[in-house]
Amino acid sequence: MDYKKPVKKAKKGIVNIVFSRVSVLIVLVLIQIAIFSASLTWLKDYAAYIDAAFLVLEMISVIYIINSKSNPAFKITWILLIFVMPFFGTVFYLFMKIMPGTGFIEKRLADLNLQTKEYMTQDEETLEALRVSKPANANLAHYLSQQVSFPVHRNTAVKYFASGEEKFEEMKKQLKKAQHFIFLEYFIVEEGIMWDAILDILVEKVNAGVEVRFMYDGMCGILQLPYHFDKQMKKYGLKCKSFSPVRPVLSSYQNNRDHRKICVIDGKVAFTGGVNLADEYINEKERFGHWKDTAVMLEGEAVQNFTILFLQMWNITQRQPENYEKYLTPKSLDIKRELGFVLPYGDSPFDKEIIGEQVYFHILNHAKKYVHIMTPYLVLDSEMLTTLTFAAKCGIEVIIIMPHIPDKWYAFILAKTYYEELIQAGVQIYEYTPGFVHAKVFVSDNDTATVGTINLDYRSFYHHFECGAFIYNNPVVWEIERDFQDTLKKCEKVTITNLHSRSIVERVVGRVLRLVAPLM
To answer: DSSP assignment, residue 190?
Structure first.
């Protein structure tokens, strides 16, 4: 290649750590907190007036929370926080509600949704065909189309990848075929074998006249990537940006991360799933044992949903108008109609709908024989806990595969607080003994599945930008179920006896964490 790759960084010493971006960010935030605390000390002569004012604010906040439309779990957590720590709880709640950053994103996305609505209209013939096949799925399609403008499609082939390695190899092949444009949107990107190989292809394509847009979540800017990574990519010819970069300023907008993984090539092919662009996802770097992940590739009509999803996110910070027609999926693709139905969907913390969780509810509520699930996290709201246990009590085989080696100790301890209630209701829980499961998969009754980025936790359901593909009556569902069964053979079943052998400290910590789970 005729460009220079960034030099790999050596392990950080003490000086590097002290002056790293993370350290500087923490120091600047602490300075802001110190200034705020000092201001309160300066106002101590007015303590009586301040106490009275905050008492009124506490009462107003609690009344507002009780009457809000948010999930009951959030209401309970916020009210508990305000009662236990009145000053901090009230200030924290008001801070999260009134920060202007999230308001801008919410308004901008609403505008972009209106701009793109004409490209996301539902084909009534397709919807009617789905209604004839399975009325319940047609109802879900109607909901997603009417509420958040995600139409269901036919004429779409789906390929399933049972590992990050498989997805990586196919993704390289498809990227090399690009003739017009490549869109990439990922939560994590980190320099290494995987990214270097992809970057080689992207630069080659840019030099051949292909438009390449690459967007990564801003959290990478302090944890995984070099400073000014986006500027370096632009030197190579890529259009590159960081979504919601983390700033050393107290702001609630930094709570909403772009957790999506999307790759669109020429409007013909799209990838999604759990696989990010870093070496652990293809087991070139071991972090938590063997990394089990999944992904899907779509080819055909349904790709257009992912194209529009990407362009909506890309244009949040753009000023110039977008030429959407330039990137629409060609209508002449030779894809067989008997490949069933595919409905790619996105979820936003600002769309007033819990899309990801509703899709999972739908699968659980309409299963006739089984629902098989892979997820790295299990932090459940009362609605999901009730739905899972009710399905099992109704005789549906509900099996959940979780990691045996966790990436976050606190999330693992918290997840185990739900195990006993689930198992007692008939839900079977297995742990993947070789390592870590990062897959986000629901598969049911040999005819329905969804693969995407959405974990079974509050972060994915309520705080993050997510996406997935709902698949019905497509042959790939059999492959997804076969992979589930193959993975199950490498798992160990969790029993009530296992749970009772946990230490007292672990049990107590788990229960305490559960109090604040909605805010984690």
So the answer is: -
Residues facing residue 402 across a β-bridge = 431
Which residue carries 């779509």 as its tokens? 298
What's the pTM?
0.88
pLDDT band at 430 (very low <50, low <70, confident <90, very high): very high
* Structure tokens that stand for 38 in this block: 């000092």
The whole-angstrom separation of Cα 92 and Cα 82 is 9
Contact at 8 Å (CB) between 151 and 241? no
| CA gap 193, 437 in Å, rounded | 21
Among 253, 251, 468, smallest CA distance to 354 is for 468
Residues belonging to the chain: 520
> Is residue 86 within 8 Å of residue 60, measured between CB atoms?
no
**Which residues touch 272 (CB under 8 Å, ≥6 apart)?**
260, 261, 262, 263, 295, 296, 298, 306, 344, 451, 452, 453, 467, 468, 469
Check residue 378 and report its DSSP letter: B
Residue 289 has φ and ψ, to the nearest 5°, of 75, -155
Q: Considering only 101-105, 231-235, 431-435, which range has the smallest mean pLDDT? A: 101-105
Cβ neighbours around 262 below 10 Å, total: 24
Query: Max CA-CA distance within the chain?
Result: 77
